[in-house]
């Protein structure tokens, strides 16, 4: 421990990189917990859809939505969500499940709704890919 300051001084760039990676890892692990938005696996999402009449929002682009989406999902692309959140106003106290392709983009959309006062915002963990992996049905616009 007495040589730690010497090690840090000699390897400053490595130490800065290590601390940065550690901070990003912690943000990745605890970021969703701190935001107050719950991530659901496909079976939990199915339960919410069937028993609590949750609203399912696909935030992918319209072309991706047309190529395949979860049955009963509404398409509101993430870039348009801020402008179109009034369409969801009547569901402010209902469970709202957001999903994208792999689950990375839906966090931003979840924060938009959470800050707008939506009380039950959920994310589909792993996005549409996890839904497909669970062998759950997908439909296409024809």
Q: Could you walk me through the main structural features you see in this protein, from its secondary elements to its overall organization?
A:
With 142 residues, the chain is α/β, with parallel strands linked by helices. The chain folds into two domains: 1-35; 36-139, Rhodanese-like domain (Oxidized Rhodanese, domain 1, 3-Layer(aba) Sandwich), CATH 3.40.250.10. The chain is built from seven helices and seven strands; from the N terminus they run H-H-E-H-E-H-E-E-H-E-H-E-H-E. A five-stranded parallel sheet has the order 1-6-5-2-4. Helix 6 (106-115) links the parallel strand 5 and strand 6. It is elongated and about 65 Å long. The mean pLDDT is 89.
Write the layout of secondary structure elements.
Elements: H1 4-10, H2 12-35, E1 38-40, H3 42-51, E2 55-58, H4 62-67, E3 69-70, E4 74-75, H5 81-84, E5 96-99, H6 106-115, E6 121-124, H7 127-133, E7 138-139
Parallel strand pairs: 1-6, 2-4, 2-5, 5-6
Antiparallel strand pairs: 3-7
* CATH C-level label of the largest domain: Alpha Beta
* Biggest sheet record: 5 strands, parallel
The number of strands is: 7
Low-confidence stretches: none
CATH architecture of the largest domain: 3-Layer(aba) Sandwich
The secondary structure category is: alpha/beta
**Termini separation (Å)?**
67 Å
Instruction: Look up the CATH topology of the largest domain.
Output: Oxidized Rhodanese, domain 1
The number of domains is 2
Put simply, the count of helices is: 7
Q: Approximately what portion of the residues adopt beta-strand conformation?
A: 5-15%
Topology order in helix (H) and strand (E) letters = HHEHEHEEHEHEHE
Largest sheet: spatial strand order: 1-6-5-2-4
What would the average pLDDT be, to the nearest integer? Answer: 89
Radius of gyration in whole Å, from Cα?
Answer: 19 Å
Q: Looking at this structure, what is the CATH superfamily of the largest domain?
A: Rhodanese-like domain
Helix content: 40-55%
Specify the overall morphology: elongated
